[in-house]
Amino acid sequence: MKRVLRAVAYAALPAELVIAVCLLAGVRLSGSVLAAAEAVTLLLLSAGAAVFVQLRRRGLSTREAVGELVPEPVLRLTGHELRIMWSIVLWVARRRDGVGPGHQAFGHARDQATILYGFAFVCVVETVGMSYLLSGWPVVHAIVLVLDVYTVFFVIGLHAASVTRPHTLTADTLRLRQAAHVDVRIPLDRIASVSYELRFTHDKKEDGVLNLAVGSQTSLTLELTEPVTTVGLLGRERRVRTVRLHADDSRALLRALTQARTALSPPPGQPA
Question: Is residue 262 classed as helix, strand or coil in its secondary structure?
Answer without folding.
Answer: helix
